[in-house]
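Researcher: We're teaching a course module on how sequence relates to structure. For the next exercise, students receive a sequence and then see the predicted structure as C-alpha cells, so they can try to spot secondary structure elements on their own. Here is the exercise chain.
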Amino acid sequence: MKKFENRDCIEGMKEYPDNHFDLAIVDPPYSVGASNGSFGRGGKKAKNSFYRKELEHYSNHDKTPNEKYFTELFRVSKQQIIWGANYYPQYLYHSGWIVWDKKKADGLLSQAELAFQSFDKVVRIFVHEWEGFRKGVASFEHTASRTIHPNQKPIALYVWILNNYAKKGDLILDTHVGSASSLIACEKMDFNYVGYELDKKYYGLAVQRLIDFNQQTNLFKTEQAEKR
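Model: And here is the predicted structure for the students to work with:
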C-alpha cells in the first residue's frame, strides 16, 4: 500500500482500526510566530523574501494539532516518532528523544530539532546540515532535491529513521507529509505508507516531487541495466 491523500489526517485515521500502522513518523505544525514571515519566539525575519512568503502561507493554512489528533495517532499506530514534540508535552506519556543536529549557528533558526520516540531507546543524534531555501530560488522547480516547504526535512533524515526504528515490512504513517521527504525515503527503502497533506498547494508540490523522484530512480535503473 502506497497511498497519499489531500485530506484532513484526523478524518483519514478514523478509517483505520487500532494499531493498523507499525510506525507513525509525523511532523505536525509547530511554528511559532511564522504568520508574519518570522522565525520562532524571537521573531527574527527571514531574509529570503520567497521563504518569508512560504512561512506566511504555512502558518495561515496549517492546523495546530489538538487532543483529537494525538488520540487518533496513538490509536492507529503501534510506535510513533513525533517531530516538534517538545511543543506538545501534555500529550506525551514519556520522554524518549531523537535529536537532529542541523549544523547551524547563525542565531536565526534552532541549531537542532527534537522528536519524541516511543521505543524507549537511548537518545540518538543525527547530524545533517539544514539546506534551507537555496540561493536564487524565485519559483518552485519540480525536482526531488528542491526545497519546497519552509519546514522541509532532509530525505537522509527519514532514511536514517527508517534504518534505526523500522523493520522490513512495516507500514508507515505520515499525517503531515509537507514536502514528501518521508515518502521519498519510504520509496527508496521499499516501505509501504499512508500519507496525508491538508494544504492543496503543498500536496500538489509533494506529489510532483514524488513523481520526479520515481522518474529519476527508474531512469537510473534503466541506465544501469543497459550497462550490464
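Model: If you want an answer key for the exercise: The beta strands are 2-5, 21-26, 38-39, 44-45, 77-83, 97-101, 112-117, 124-127, 171-174, 192-196. Residues 32-48, 135-143 have pLDDT under 50 and may be disordered.
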